Amino acid sequence: MTAAWGNLSPPRRWLLARRRALVVGLLLIGGAAAPVVITRGRSGPLSGSVAQGPSLRGASQYRISAFPYMTVGWSGWCTSAVFDSRSGREAADYGCGAVESGGPVIAGGASFGDQRGFYSYGIVSDRVASVRWDGRVFLPIESPRLPPGTRAYFTAGPPAREVRFAGLPRLFDSVGHEIPQPLISRENAVEHLPLIAVSPREPGKAACALRASNIPHLVALAQTVATPVSWPRRQPGAFLACANATYRLDGSTLGVAVLLDATNARRPAPPLSELQPDPAHPGLLAGHELGNIGFPQGLSVFNGGGGQAFNTTTRRQQFANHDLSARRAGPAWLIPEGGTPAQRATLLANLAISP
């Protein structure tokens, strides 16, 4: 079952939609080592195991990830939480959104579950030292896997007799002052950049456009660009997707995104979290289930039937998977999504970015 926010009844929206809310309680969470008891107020790690997964099939391995929002014209983040049991994928919760203001909530903010158990996760600014919700205190954690300047929380709640929503969390800094959570208005929102559709084969002089070499079995299908502008982004470490293109290579469809520093396009873009060196292709980085090219802005989905993150019924599914590779290209990151590692490496070797 896949559920999107707009298609749910109000009770189910509380259960499955992403919210800036926490479910805090006594946790039993373990990593690669022996399971440890995480008491009330302590966040779980970004990956590990829970004693009981969402499908009630026993222990479940989970992983929470964050990666730049790669849809052209936007600056923001995508998050996902996936649960895998011995028999396969149990559930996935994922979504993307723009960095709209300087508020303390960066991404995520998901709570999902029912009387059998609850799960909640999110990413907040490193200004947030504690979260207070329903009379309890919750401490977010730092991790090198997170975007710069952020912290995260994850909690798995025990079964409850009834479902109730205790309101939005209150966020506090290190000295106990509450951090305001501003509403998004026209005055403080980051605007979406105008988009320009260009010829995928001959994009002209459009800034940020991609040019592909003329090699066998590589066909340029479509390309859209957005001219970068210098904006005083409130979130440090943010990226701007200034181009999306689609190619067919050896029968597979691949998407490509160009990511720049969101504040200054001429400055080297920040490092990419979650990626690791690709041992089969020196000089390239690789990641699993992080690709989100074309994912609708602001959409969040809970897939209770399992399945791959960022596969939704609301999006045209043109890629076989959402695995990706990446390399530096001047100040930018060049990131293909889909296909095999070898196909992505071939594509990266035959692409260049217009100045």
Notes on the structure:
This protein has helices spanning 10-16, 341-349, and strands spanning 2-4, 27-30, 36-38, 47-50, 60-68, 76-85, 88-98, 105-114, 117-125, 130-133, 136-138, 150-157, 170-172, 196-198, 210-212, 218-225, 239-249, 252-261, 276-277, 285-287, 300-303, 324-329, 332-337, 351-353. The protein is mainly β. It has 2 domains: 2-172, no CATH class; 196-296 and 315-353, no CATH class. Strands 1-21-7-6-5-4-2-3 form an 8-stranded antiparallel sheet, with no helix packed on it. Strand 19 and strand 20 form a beta hairpin. The chain is globular, with a radius of gyration of 20 Å. Mean pLDDT is 79; it is low at 1-40.
What's the gist of this structure?
With 355 residues, this protein is mainly β.
Summary tags:
single chain, 5% helix, eight-stranded antiparallel sheet, mainly beta, 355 residues, disordered N terminus
What separation lies between the terminal Cα atoms? Answer: 44 Å
**What global shape is seen?**
globular
Which range best describes the helical content: under 10%, 10-25%, 25-40%, 40-55%, 55-70% or over 70%?
under 10%
Evaluate the radius of gyration: 20 Å
Specify the biggest β-sheet. 8 strands, antiparallel
| Spatial strand arrangement across the major sheet | 1-21-7-6-5-4-2-3
Strand content: 35-45%
Mean pLDDT over the full residue set:
79
Q: Uncertain runs with pLDDT below 50, 5 residues or more?
A: 1-40
Number of domains: 2
Question: How many H/I helices?
Answer: 2
Structural class: mainly beta
Give the number of DSSP strands: 24
Reading the helices and strands in chain order gives EHEEEEEEEEEEEEEEEEEEEEEEHE
